[in-house]
Every structure is written in C-alpha cells, then in structure tokens.
C-alpha cells in the first residue's frame, strides 16, 4: 500500500505505473470483484470516445460562433460604409444645390 501511495504522489511515477493491478489487488483483499467495481477496457474506451466526441462538438460550435461573429462584424462594417457613402452623397447634392444657387445669384 505504501508503494501505491508513493506512485500516486507523483505524476511522473503515475505515468510509469500500471495502476490496474493495484486496484485489482485492493479489490481482492476486500473480497470485492474487480469486474463489478472497476471499469472494463471497453467501458474506458467508450468514455474516452464520448469525451472526444463532446470535445469535437464543442470545437465545431466555437468555430461556428467565430464565423457568425465575423459575419456580423463584416455586416456592421458594410452598413457603416454604406452610411458614410450616403452622407457623402448627401453632402455632394447639397454642395451642388449651393453652387447652383450661387450661380443664379451671380447672374
């Protein structure tokens, strides 16, 4: 048991150790069936696959939201540009009207 405590106290040692035999021995010493209380390799694989799928879905959602945000920003910039063009057009028309009025006054 001290060896297991030592192994679990260090990430480096935990990475090197095979923990399943420790768990099997502990279960056996407690008259508990490892098959009942410990995950099978298939169960661990299913859980890992489910986590991987959830992570992939989350990453896809983030990409989608990022794309949508960029589209919203682009639309905002386009609308702002359109408003600037409209203001410029209005100023041009106002300048034409003023120029025309000045020309009439001079004549």
- The overall strand count is 0
Name the structural class.
mainly alpha
User: Averaging pLDDT over every residue, what do you get?
Assistant: 91
Shape: rod-shaped
Terminal Cα separation, in Å?
110 Å
The percent range for helix content is over 70%
Could you state the oligomeric state of the chains shown?
Answer: single chain
- The rounded Rg comes to 36 Å
What does the main sheet amount to? Answer: none
Q: How many domain modules?
A: 1
Number of helices: 5
> What is the string of SSEs from the N terminus onward?
HHHHH
- Low-pLDDT runs: none
Percent in strands: under 5%
Q: How would you describe this structure to a colleague?
A:
The protein is an all-alpha fold. It has one domain (2-76). It contains five helices and no strands. It has helices at 2-8, 11-16, 19-29, 34-37, 41-106. The termini are far apart. The relative contact order is 0.04. The mean pLDDT is 91.
Write the SSE topology.
Blueprint: H1 2-8, H2 11-16, H3 19-29, H4 34-37, H5 41-106
Features:
0% strand; 107 residues; mainly alpha; 5 helices
In short:
The chain is mainly α and 107 residues long. It has helices spanning 2-8, 11-16, 19-29, 34-37, 41-106.
């Amino acid at each position: 048991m001290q060896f297991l405590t030592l192994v679990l106290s260090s990430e480096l040692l935990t990475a090197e150790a095979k923990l399943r035999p420790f768990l099997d021995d502990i279960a056996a010493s407690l008259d508990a069936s490892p098959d009942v209380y410990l995950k099978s390799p298939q169960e661990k694989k299913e859980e890992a696959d489910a986590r991987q799928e959830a992570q992939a879905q989350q990453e896809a959602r983030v990409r989608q939201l990022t794309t949508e945000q960029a589209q919203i920003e682009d639309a905002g910039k386009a609308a702002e540009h359109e408003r600037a063009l409209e203001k410029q057009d209005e100023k041009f028309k106002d300048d034409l009207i003023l120029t025309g009025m000045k020309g009439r006054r001079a004549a």
